[in-house]
Amino acid sequence: VIAKDISVQKRTEDELRKRNTEFEALVENSPDLISRHSPDGKYLYANVAVASANGRDPQEFIGKTMEEA
Predict the structure, then answer these.
(1) What is the pLDDT of residue 3?
(2) Dihedral of CA 59/65/66/67: which sign?
(3) pLDDT at 5
(4) In terms of C-beta distances under 8 Å and separation of at least 24 residues, what long-range contacts does 13-18 make, across chains too?
(5) b/e string for 38-62 if b means 16 or more Cβ within 10 A?
């Protein structure tokens, strides 16, 4: 029974990893501006399109508010 439970968990983790990879590919290759922000308005994530629109590296946005960026 324990081996079966671990097998189900492994399949679930593998599927989650696969979906995460697919999501990342979609977001990183989208021409749309996509970003995530913390409750206090700081960038947690900015895709390449956000950075391209501003002529900057995506990592330059992380930890800054829209006004700071």
Answers:
(1) 62
(2) negative
(3) 73
(4) none
(5) eeeebbeebbbbbbeeeeeebeebe
Q: Rounded to 5 degrees, what are φ and ψ at 62? A: -60, 130
8: left (phi over 0), alpha (psi -120 to 50) or beta: alpha
* Per-residue pLDDT reduced to its tens digit, 13-51: 999 999 999 999 999 999 999 999 999 999 999 999 998
**What are 62's strand-pairing partners?**
43
Rounded to an integer, what distance in angstroms lies between the CA atom of residue 57 and that of residue 69? Answer: 11
CA distance 10 to 30: 30
